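Notes to self after the Tuesday call (sharing in case useful).
The group wants a holo model before anyone commits to mutagenesis around the pocket. I volunteered. Ligand is iron/sulfur cluster. Logging inputs and output together so the record is complete.
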Amino acid sequence: MPHPSSDAPSPRPGADPSPTAADAAAPASCAGAGHDTPRPFGGFLESALEAVAARRDNSIRLGKADGLAVLRAADLLGIGWLANGVRERLHGRRTYYNINRHIDYSNVCVNHCEFCAFSREKGAPGAWTRSLDEIFALAESAAAAASPVSACSPAAAGSSVAQGASTPAVTELHIVGGCHPDLPFEYYVQMLRGLRERLPGVHLKAFTAVEIAHFARLSGLKIEAVLTRLIEAGLGSLPGGGAEVLTPATRRMICGEKISARRWLNIHRTAHRLGLKTTCTMLYGHVESLEDRIDHLLALRALQDETGGFQAFVPLAFHPAHSRLSHLPGPSGAADLKTVAAARLLLDNIPHVKAYWVMLGVKTAQVAQSFGADDLDGTVVEETITHMAGAQSPQALTVKDLRRLIQETGHIPVERDSLYREVRRSQKLAEATGRRPCG
Ligand code: V47
Ligand code: SF4
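Result:
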């Protein structure tokens, strides 16, 4: 039942503090909350959210006004409930994670994005570029590590269930870097080829659309030809970086040298046509307006209607330290959660919303599972982009950490590969956890 609009959070008039049947049933059920479940509380504190709920419940596609209503509302629990309904309809109580390793191959970049604390001019103090041999060694050590499932899962402690499993410890390498002025295209081709030869079972998620455009410039090849050569060399999918904010005027303010929004979208369009899955991101919490955020989400949704190639959306919380925007505060916890929720509600055609713990912080990422996110990304192991911008999150999480973050909120941890297929390291392990994935 709706309540009159109110801008300030206040006690919910008429809210029933005792759990409803829907509350009680939700954690135990994998069936999803459904779209027309009764409100689990006395109603929304803001009537704008009631209108969003009505459209959601009637499967009417949400629009710009709905997205703005979510971002502008103060009723955080109401927003979470709205987005969680969609999340549960799609994924039940499952939360995905993967065992991955990031490799940032170089921070040398020809661009000077205002928000970036990672890039350096070639030869400047703090600039680094990894040789192919260094990259191969890092990747091999990640793949050779004892299976993190058997090493870290409490359920597996003392058990040999995952020992000797044929699935490598790491199933994905996430490889990105700056736009280096003179590394030849062959460096990237050889990187993928060498990794595929050494680690044939590991998925190579590599190079943002910005890097792909840079390779095209370096090599004189068209985007399609660049991607084709990289696919032949072992490329498995593209990460979603470089989208920043797609609204042209704001994009010019924060990353004027970078490829245009249209080009970023076109590169993903081409990748999808060639059969690659990709992810998409949005960098928020700097100078952009709430309208920019919603326009960005709608641009992603429009491309997804056309291609279906985005697997996940990843909201990236701006970290200001050491960047040219270091005077800005960065997004608040409420802004983080509202952005996750708005994405889940608007991106009705993108299956997954990722709470990337490196940028959200581990605690907010955990809570984001109740605001629409169904994926915590992975073990990561080593990350430089956000940590050079002041991130306080750890460098790595163990599988034990990830599973605990998921289970503590009543969710079901599911290890996935890069294409969101469930990784079953051993039947016994799943049984031992007592948390069999549903569906
Ligand atoms: O492209 C740069 C952003 C991106 C800052 O695809 C910053 O699954 C915050 O794209 N504060 C790289 N963000 C990371 C990225 C990513 C991460 C995890 C998963 C996936 C995926 C993609 O980080 C860059 C840029 O958009 N970035 N500087 C900063 N100061
Ligand atoms: Fe270069 Fe990427 Fe940093 Fe921009 S965000 S300066 S393209 S490394």
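Two things stood out.
The radius of gyration is 22 Å.
The first strand starts at residue 94 and ends at 98.
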